[in-house]
Amino acid sequence: MPQPPNPDTNKTCTHDWCLIFIAWLIAACGTLGALFFGEVMGIAPCTLCWYQRIFMFPLAIFLPLALFPLDTKVIRYALPLAMLGLGFAIYHWLLQLGIIPATTSPCSQGSSCSEVSAQWFGFLTIPLMSVFAFALINIALLATLIREK
Asked: Structure pTM?
């Protein structure tokens, strides 16, 4: 005799799908934002910006692949990328704030990692937006991981 679908299982699946979708949406916005700043506004990315792009761009590509059908195993690959990206973003933001000395900057030529090239509302810089994006992606992926257990 066929079993009726368990409504709790479908709810869990929907919540996990939504969390991964939110993580992808943030990664896609971060990717498009980085391309907009670089290609449209002409702000040359520094070395730390390139490292953050290395961790953000793959998230925008493979997170949606885990949505159809839902595959929460993507967290195994996405979470380390998001955590490393968050580390680079925090380091970049602290470097811009002057908390970390500019002598430790990996930028040797081109645009400077400690230079503020764009700022909104008096505090919102590109590295701070990157910190927010990676933090939100990490929260969404960790919430999915915790719900899975």
From this structure: 0.86
Q: For all residues of the chain together, what is the average pLDDT?
A: 88
* Residues of the chain below pLDDT 70: 1-13, 109-110
- Segment (H or E) for 6: none
What single string gives the DSSP state of each residue in 48-77? Answer: HHHHHHHHHHHHHHHTGGGBTTB-GGGHHH
Question: Is the Cβ–Cβ distance between 140 and 19 less than 8 Å?
Answer: yes
From 62, 126, 124, select the one nearest 88 (Cα to Cα): 126
CATH architecture of 9-148: Up-down Bundle (1.20)
Q: Which of 106, 134, 24, 105 is nearest to 71 (CA)?
A: 24
